[in-house]
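TL;DR need structure tokens for one chain.
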Amino acid sequence: MAGKFTDVIQISESVYVFSNPEGDVNMDVPGTVVPINFWAVVNEKKEVFIIDTGFDNLAESIVGYTESLGTPTAVFATHGHLDHVLGVKVYKKAWDIPAYIDSREIEALKEGHSPYTSKEEGMADLYEPLDEEMLKRAGLKAYFVPGHSVGNTVFYHEKENVLLAGDMISNSEDILLPPAQRYTLNMDEAIDSAKILDVLKPKYISTGHGRVPFMEYKEGMYRDMYWGFAASKNK
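>> reply
TL;DR here they are.
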């Protein structure tokens, strides 16, 4: 695995992305790598909230930096696939803080089928259902966007207009792409869920995977992704 994230980029006043654009080893497909992004949000009280976790080694690499931002307070996960939850053990050991995820994802973690962690990891016991009060403290709103996974969630920093999209979508340079087919439960549903882009119209979008850590929202992004998907589907 890659040793650490490549960079820390401040997207807005309160939102940071931990970016590993060169990628980490894809354990399911030997010889390939996957770019990984995850996030920190800092509120006015200097409480720090981690969104998604990366793998263990990536989580370990950001502990010191996170502490420099303020007081680590909670972890949120967009969904329960292993690259989004494995690092939670690192954060709990370092700070003894709660971790939250959609309740449907907790059930999937209990079942332990790939691309979720195995039952032996005990990941379901480390997460609680999403808590509205804790989300409010972070300045975030959670939106249920099924398709990639059963309880897939995106987090929106409304005040600063930043969408942390997780694996609802991915990117390549300046275009949006659907999530990886191999790990997506229902691609048609995932594409439909991504319509939220044109509802929220965020200033910035940051995805869990993709060479670009964050990008500006532009009118027509969702349309282009939708028609690109439809065209590839009909080939």
